[in-house]
Every structure is written in C-alpha cells, then in structure tokens.
Amino acid sequence: MREISILIGGEAGDGTKLTGKLIGKILNRMGYSVFIYDDYQSLIRGGHNFSIIRAKDKNVKIHQNDIDILIALNQETIDFHKKHLKKGGIIIYDSSNIESQKGIGIKMLEKVQKLGFPKVLRNAIALGALCKILGIDFKILEKVIKENLETYQKENIKLAKFGFEEPEKKFELNKLSAKPKILLTGNEAIALGATKAGLEMYIAYPMTPATSILHFLAKYKDEFGIQVVQPENEIAGILMVEGVVYAGKRAMIGTSGGGFALMTEALSLAGMAELPILIVLSQRAAPSTGVPTYTMQGDLLFAINAGHGEFQRIVVAPGEAEQAFYLAGELLNLVWKFQVPGILVSDKHLSESTFSVSLNVEKINKTSPKLFKGKKGYKRYLLTKDGISPLAFPGQKNVITKATSYEHDEYGLTTEKPDEIVRMIDKRKRKKDAIIKEMKKRETVKIGGKKNSEKVLITWGSNIGAVEEVANNLGYKVIQPLYLEPFPIWAIEKELKGTKTIIDIETNSEGQLATILKCHGINVDKTILKYDARPFTPKELEKEL
Amino acid sequence: MKEKIELKDLNTYAQKTWCPGCGNFSIEIATKLAILELINEGFAKKEEFVLLSGIGCHAKIVDYINLNSFYSIHGRVIPPATGIKLANPKLKIIGFEGDGDAYNEGISHLIWAAKRNTDITLIVHDNRVFALTTGQYTATSPKGFKGGSTPKGTFEEPFNPIELMLASGATFVARGYAARQGHLKELIKRAICHRGFSFIDVLQPCVSFFNTYEFYNQRVYELEEKNHDVRDFERALKLARKWDYSSCDTKIPIGVFYQTQKPTFEELYQQKSISEKEKIQNLKKILEKLR
Ligand SMILES: Cc1ncc(C[n+]2csc(CCOP(=O)(O)OP(=O)(O)O)c2C)c(N)n1
Ligand code: SF4
Which of B51, B113, B73 is nearest to A267 (CA)? Predict the structure, then answer.
C-alpha cells in the first residue's frame, strides 16, 4: 500500500486528538509522509470530534475524506463517516457503547473499566488493534507510547497489547526506508521559525486557533530563553509588544480576527512610531465569534488594510508548515530591518493541522537591523534615502530616543507644520520601495504543479495542499503568493505570461485574492470559493474544475 | 563618578502650548526636579529614565522633557510601560496619564498594573475633565459637572481612584496637588524609588475647563504633617474615603496614603537568558522529539 487514510472519532474529552497524533507518529516511523486534520467543536465535553490521518509514500499536505480505516469511540463517528469508508475499508469500534455491525468490535470501555483505568485509556486498545490490522510491529507502537505519553505508560502498553491480540492482519503496510520526518503543526512551525530568528518575548491573549503558539512557547520558554506573557487583553498585548521592541527586544503576538480587530489602533501606532512588531493572525470562520474552531480565509483584506491612516506593513501568508517556519523567521527579520509592523496570516487549517516536514534550521538566522553607531546627536526619525532611520534603545549612553504616536520631526517631537508632515510621510513611504527591492531578492511567489501549463490555479494560504495535489493530477500550474503586502505583482505577472486560464481558489465567500489581483489589473477567469468553514480536499476541488 | 546635570539639560526645544496658569506646568517642574535630583544623587543615569504619556493636554509633558520617551495613544500608557520594563528591568519608567487616560479609556490596565505590582511609576494629571477635547466629564468629575456632553450636569457619581488603587493591590498609593510643587516633587522622588507599582493621583487645576485652585487651596492638607503611618492599610483606606471627589464639605489629604513591599512583576517574570548555541541545541532536540 502506498497511501492510507485513517479516521478516529469520538466525543470531546475522549482523547481522539492525541490518538490521532500517535497514529501519525506510528505511520511516520513506518517511513510515510503524514498529514493530520483535526476537526473539533468549540466545547469541552460531548459533541463530535475527529481526526483524519493520511499517510503516503510521497509528500502529503492535505487529507482526503475517503477513509480506509474508521476507528469509532462513539456511535456518531459511525453515523457521520461510514459513508466515506472506501470499498474494502474496515471499521474498528468500541462494542461497549456502539451497536454491533460489520467490522472489528472490541469491548474497549468494558475492559478499561474492569481494570479500573480512566476511560481515555481505551484509545490504547484501539491503537493496538490498528497496528495489528496494518501489520505494524508492536515494538513501534510501544516506543511511540513510551516517548509520547507521560502518565499511565505501563497501563497503556498493557491495553495496547490487549488490542493487538484481538483482530487479524488485514493490510500490508510496507515499512519504507525513509527516515521519520518531523511532525509539526503550522503554529509550532511559526513559533520555531520566529524563535530561530531571535524571538525574545511572546505575548498573547488566548484565542483559537492561535492559542497553541502560546502553549508551545510557554512549554519551551526556558529551552528557548523566551519570555511568555499573558496580558489582560489584546489591546494591552500589542502595546506591551510595542514597549518591548522600543526597548530593543524582539517580540511577537498571536491572535485571531476578534483580537486583531482590537489591536488595530495600536497597529497604526506601530506604523507611525516605526515599531518592528510581528502579529500572527490565525483566521477562524468569522465574522464576529463566527465558527471559532473552524477555518476560513476572510481576513486577507482586513490584514492588509487594518488601522487608520496610511502606513506600510508587510503581510505574508504561508500555506503549510515548512513555509510557516521559514516565513515566520524571515518576517521577524524583515520587520526589524524596515521598522514596520508585520502580519503573518494563517488560519485554523494551517495553524492546527499536523505536517511532516524536513527543516533546514540553519537557513534562518537573526539578521542585525540598522543600528545607531554615533556618539551624540541621535535622531530617532533621521531622514534617510531609504527611509530607514538607525535604531537606538533606552539605556544606551548619550542617546535619547523618542517614539511617538503624533506626527513628528526627526528628533521625535510633535509637529503640525505642513512641510515637516510631508517630509515624514515621504520618509516612511520610501520604505515601501526599500522593502520591494529586498523582496525582489527573495521567493515571494511559490510556483508548483505543471510549471509550463497554460492553465493556472492561483491561491493563497492553507489551500495550497489541496490545490497542489489537484494541479499535479490534472496538469495545472500553481501560483501561490507568499507575500500579500507589498503585493509581488512583478513576480505574478512574470509567471502569468503566456497562460490562458486563471482560476482563483479561496476558502472565503468573496474571493479576496481575486480582488487584489483585479486592483493590479489581473482578472481571473473563474473563482472557486468554499465557505462551509471546512478546508478543500483534493477530491472536492477536482469536482469543481 | 556621579553624573551632574542641570535643569536646562532636561529641556527640549518644543514650544509649550499649555494655557497660562495650567497645573501641568507645576507637574512638569516637579518631575524635572525630582529626576534631576535622583540623577545627581547617583540613583540612576539620565539614559535610564523612560517617560511615557497618553493623549491629552498633560501628555505633552514628554515633548517638554529631554529624556527617552514613548508618546503612546489615549489610555495606553501602562501596557508599553510594562513591556519596556520587562524587556529591560534596569530602566526607570515613569508614565503620565490624564484622568481620561487612566480612569476612562485605560482603566483595565491601571487595575492590572496594581494587581501585578509592575515596577513603574504612574502620575495621573487629574484635572477631572477631558481638557484637550474641550471639557467633557470624566470618571473623577464631581456629580453635576457641566460640560459639553452634559450641559445640565452629569448624573454620575465619580469614583475614588485612591480607594480603587488600594483595593487593587497597589504598593505605593499617593495623592499630590499641582500647586504644592515641593511636596509633589518629594512624592515623585519617593514613587520612583519605590520598588513596585507607584501611583500618584495629582490634583491638577485646569484653568480653562475646571478651575479648582481655590477649592483645593482651602481644603488640602499634607499627610506628612499628621504622622500618618503609611504601612497601615486600614487607616489608609479610611483616609482615602475622607473625600469622595464630589463633596465640598471636607478637607482633602495629600501625601502618601499607603506603601508596602511585594515582589514585582518583572522579578517574578524574569526569564533566564541562554546562549545562542544552547538555544539552537535545544531547538534541534525538541525537533527530534517531534519525529
Ligand atoms: C481612542 C481615542 N478616543 C478619543 C480620543 C480623543 N481624546 C483626545 S484627548 C482625550 C481626553 C483627554 O482627557 P485626559 O486624559 O483627562 O487628558 P487632559 O486633556 O485632561 O490632560 C480624548 C477623549 C483619542 N485621542 N483617542
Ligand atoms: S485646557 Fe486645561 S489642562 Fe489643558 S492646557 Fe489649558 S488649563 Fe491645562
């Protein structure tokens, strides 16, 4: 077998998410590339949660809804997903609480209760059964349990053994020679990329789907030497970040649409005061509270336009975990280089899905910003050719550094004089040219699929997994802008030369990338938009083409 | 060697735009003198001071003092002050807010600063009116205050910031009066030297929209002359309640109401720094664990 999809489902609190991750790890150790999609509701108990784990002998960056093995811990998992079971697929279910049917019923709950263990431990039985069916060596399972579960190890292994003895081997999942890759969620990749680029402080108020950055960095703060702070609200959060960067340390904040909306006044302050802040905006299905644990790309134009007044910013949008790692590091360096706010736009699908990645950690390095080296006469907003004024920080001898929300002179004192206002606006505007010059040296647009095709799929963010897979199957070229502001129109125009059809693919209802393209004189021939708060799967997308 | 500076070293070329007679002048001088003395006494270096302000008449003070400053937005002095202090605990942070900043727009930050005991000093220019927006009532305007938005007088009772700060856990709570410049200077010095969140509500007459000079001159007395024990919380609370920011029939105590010691936010949050090499090793180790 070269590809397999497994779905595990249960109620919230049943532990299916962790089990999904462990299944991913097991398949990863078998040498497969893995993608895990977690679908969960905004509640703590009850409801219906599931994870789909797709493993392939080639790079995989998206799940499919069609399932080879369905693991059900509750009745709803069967009711909802049985229709997706492929021919020859198998159901493993807990026959203690699910009505009997074709497949492998094991009295998991009963067993666990008889032994007096907590209910969630029944997942180990399911894992055991799964490994047996797939012909996976028990040692691999045992190792994964030992390395990943901190409590109830012995009990889990005992139960896994029990599960392993129950069914018969049904599939032959060959062990591949590939070395297991790193399994990373988009949010973990963002955190790690920023860390490698010198992040010193992370400040965030919890909000799905950005929260796992906060948890990840809080967990490893001592290993990374990063301070992690939970502020009283998002307004305080972004302003704390602005204080930190004014004092000379690298700081980042993460949130979703609602929190970002609260930050917009201070975003303008970053524009005016030229503060190098980095915001991670992980979109959820909105407007307002919307569908908080599901995905949508409704905030692209908001990210690009948020804040009052005109000021430059840099907006990037990675589509999968590797891109997230590199772009987070790159953006942190760039905001310091150009002293502008930066926004990394993600969404639930990228932030919380798990990817197999291979990372070249050395590729990201902290680059030094332009620093004041003089002995006296420091001017925070010195007029320069490229608009970038040298930085100095409070505490530095012979330096007085004045940051301000008011329009100001070079020294940082308030001005209302017309000529000084124009001079300062022009100075800040010059940074746009400098940024574009820098971007032209970098990969700002990712090209994939059949590169010489006349038919183009253009998309952004987390759709890339599905879009690329379909493009490879059907012979389309893929254009994915990684930078959205400044918009890399030069690179896109070059890639569009000689093409005949342009199809725009987004998970929102208005086609926001298509709108941006239109502003730059590019009209797409068709848009494929999905806004049921679920990501595209390749099969769904193929049907639309 | 101690650094010696003069008052003029703290001046900028910015033109002052406060109304003649405004209480802000006195607060500015008191602040400059306090900082000047602290520098010359060797308490801190000039470059170690960072001033912050919100938006309003009072806020212009940072343009008038030649020290590091962060001229923030309305109501948002405490969050950047907290960030600066976290990033570099050696710095001496002094925030200036109007009553509009501190008690209206940014009230949540104020309570949190007291709760956390962030080691910063906050000086509130409490003119009990939104001055820069031409005279509307604020959280500390007296009941019946007539302003642009309440021509017939506000129905709301003011709240008492001293009481609020005591209840929120502030470790240095004081009230000053702009027209008692020497006393105010001493208060500011003590506040800066205090380790933890220092709060001074400064009664500041606004000659254009709420001229309170006479009112305060008749009522203000200094706690320092009354042998008040600043460690006595219950007594502090009682003194705080003496005047409710509305009534006219009582004396108004100024001075330090309460002072105590607690670990500061920055001390508790200090992050052990690690070398770049160590960090990369750890990062690689964690990546290995994620296989
Ligand atoms: C978010 C926001 N809302 C409103 C304003 C308008 N505004 C400017 S100053 C001010 C109030 C100033 O009152 P206060 O803080 O007491 O300072 P004062 O002028 O009395 O010194 C207001 C409401 C603003 N700048 N920003
Ligand atoms: S309006 Fe009031 S607070 Fe503002 S400068 Fe004039 S007197 Fe001072």
Answer: B73
Alpha helices in A382-460 (DSSP H): 418-439
CA angle A164, A165, A166 (to 5 degrees): 95
Residues 154-213 of A with CB under 8 A from B: 180-184, 188, 192, 195-196, 200-201, 203
Average pLDDT over residues A327-350: 98
Q: Which CATH architecture has domain B7-290?
A: 3-Layer(aba) Sandwich (3.40)
E strands present in A261-375:
278-283, 314-316, 342-347, 354-357
Sequence-distant (≥ 6) Cβ neighbours of residue A100 within 8 angstroms: none
Quote the CA–CA distance of A248 and A511 in Å, as a whole number: 39
Interface of B with A in 207-226 (CB under 8 A): none
Q: Is the pLDDT of residue B1 over 80?
A: no
The amino acid at residue A23 is: I
The reply to whether residue B84 touches residue A243, judged by beta carbons under 8 angstroms, is yes
Contact status of B68 with chain A (Cβ, < 8 Å): yes
List, for residues A111-125, the tens digit of each pLDDT value: 999 999 999 999 999
Homologous superfamily of the A3-165 domain (CATH): Pyruvate-ferredoxin oxidoreductase, PFOR, domain III (3.40.920.10)
**Other Cβ atoms closer than 10 A to A205:** 23
> What token pair was written down for A105?
């019923």
CATH code that applies to domain A183-363: 3.40.50.970
For every residue of A496-542, DSSP letters joined together read HTT--EEEEEESSSS-HHHHHHHHTT---SEEEE--SSS---HHHHH
A294-324 confidence digits (pLDDT tens) = 999 999 999 999 999 999 999 999 999 999 9
Q: How far is the CA of B181 from the centre of ligand 2 (A)?
A: 18
A445-473 pLDDT, tens digit each: 999 999 999 999 999 999 999 999 999 99
Q: Could you report the per-residue pLDDT of B114-162, keeping only the tens digit for each? A: 999 999 999 999 999 999 999 999 999 999 999 999 999 999 999 999 9
The alpha carbon of A382 and the centre of ligand 1 are apart by a number of angstroms equal to 29
Residue spans per domain, chain A:
3-165, 183-363, 370-442, 445-544
The candidate with the shortest Cα–Cα distance to A403, out of A226, A243, A200, is A243
Q: Give residue limits of the domains in chain B.
A: 7-290
- Which helix (H) or strand (E) segment holds residue A86: the answer is strand A85-94
* Strand, helix or coil for residue A133: helix
pLDDT at A495 over 60: yes
Tell me, what's the pLDDT at B34? 98
Asked if A236 and B269 come within 8 Å (Cβ–Cβ), the reply is no
CB burial of B93-120 (b: ≥16 within 10 Å; e: otherwise) equals bbbbbbbbbbbbbbbebbbbbbebbbbb
pLDDT confidence tier of residue B250, bands split at 50, 70 and 90: very high
A237 min Cα distance to partner chain B (Å) = 7
Is the CB of residue B90 less than 8 Å from the CB of residue B72? no
Q: For the segment A244-289, what is each residue's pLDDT rounded down to a tens digit?
A: 999 999 999 999 999 999 999 999 999 999 999 999 999 999 999 9
Average pLDDT over residues B182-198: 98
- CA torsion sign for A154, A159, A160, A165 is positive
Task: Kindly report the three-state secondary structure assignment for every residue of A282-311.
Answer: EECECCCCCECCCCCCCCHHHHHHCCCCCC
The CATH classification number of A445-544 equals 3.40.50.920
B226/A204 Cα distance (integer angstroms): 46
How would you classify the pairing of strands A501-506 and A526-529? Answer: parallel
CA separation for the pair B125, B100 (Å, rounded): 9
A71 vs A132: CA distance, rounded Å: 14
Nearest-CA distance from A219 to chain B in Å? 11
State mean pLDDT over A42-55. Answer: 90
